[in-house]
């Protein structure tokens, strides 16, 4: 009789007939902690507008159920005037909120959105920026 011996790397050793060892990425994925869902916030990164024209930019959002008391503060660099409120609350799990402004001068400006919320009763903050180019 001929007796052969075989060896395998740590990725394929063990697990009998399965073919994957405990160090293989396909086995490791089951040991990883689940990632918590985050608030999904979408707004244009850049917007080109005309001087003295009112523009409404949508902020689209999806809020997981473990978030509450979500508020948004909007600030702009000089040269942009907000027409909509500079603070508002998000009370729905999904939706859109328009942020309206007028550009007074030609140039490049920035709009900053700071989002404050409680996630499982722990304060969290998100930030989004939009570049505004005025012609």
How does this structure look, described?
It is a single chain. 3% of the residues lie in helices and 51% in strands. It has one helix spanning 25-28, and strands spanning 40-42, 46-49, 54-62, 67-76, 80-82, 87-90, 94-103, 107-119, 122-134. The strands form two sheets. It has a five-stranded mixed sheet, with no helix packed on it. A four-stranded antiparallel sheet has the order 1-3-7-5, with no helix packed on it. It is elongated and about 90 Å long. The chain starts with 24 loop residues before the first helix and ends with a strand. The model has no long low-confidence stretch (mean pLDDT 87).
Walk me through the topology.
Elements lengths: L24 H4 L11 E3 L3 E4 L4 E9 L4 E10 L3 E3 L4 E4 L3 E10 L3 E13 L2 E13 L1
Parallel strand pairs: 2-9
Antiparallel strand pairs: 1-3, 3-7, 4-6, 4-8, 5-7, 8-9
Quote the average pLDDT: 87
Shape: elongated
Q: Care to count the β-strands?
A: 9
Could you give the order of the helices and strands?
A: HEEEEEEEEE
Q: Helix count?
A: 1
- Please tell me how large the radius of gyration is: 25 Å
Main sheet summary: 5 strands, mixed
Q: Which blocks of ≥5 consecutive residues have pLDDT under 50?
A: none
Under CATH, the homologous superfamily of the largest domain reads Immunoglobulins
Helix content estimate: under 10%
The CATH topology of the largest domain corresponds to: Immunoglobulin-like
- Across the major sheet, the strand order is 2-9-8-4-6
| CATH architect. name of the largest domain | Sandwich
Q: Which structural class matches the secondary elements?
A: mainly beta
């Amino acid at each position: 009789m001929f007796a052969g011996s075989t060896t395998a790397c740590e990725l394929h050793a063990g697990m009998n007939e399965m073919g994957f060892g405990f160090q293989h990425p396909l086995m490791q994925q089951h040991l990883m902690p689940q990632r918590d869902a985050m608030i999904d916030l979408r707004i244009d990164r850049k917007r080109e507008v005309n001087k003295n024209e009112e523009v409404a930019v949508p902020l689209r959002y999806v809020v997981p159920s473990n978030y509450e008391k979500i508020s948004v503060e909007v600030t702009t660099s000089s040269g942009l005037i907000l027409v909509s409120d500079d603070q508002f609350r998000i009370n729905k799990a999904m939706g859109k909120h328009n942020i309206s402004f007028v550009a007074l001068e030609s140039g490049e400006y920035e709009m900053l959105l700071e989002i404050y919320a409680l996630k499982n009763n722990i304060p969290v903050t998100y930030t989004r920026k939009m570049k505004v180019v005025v012609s």
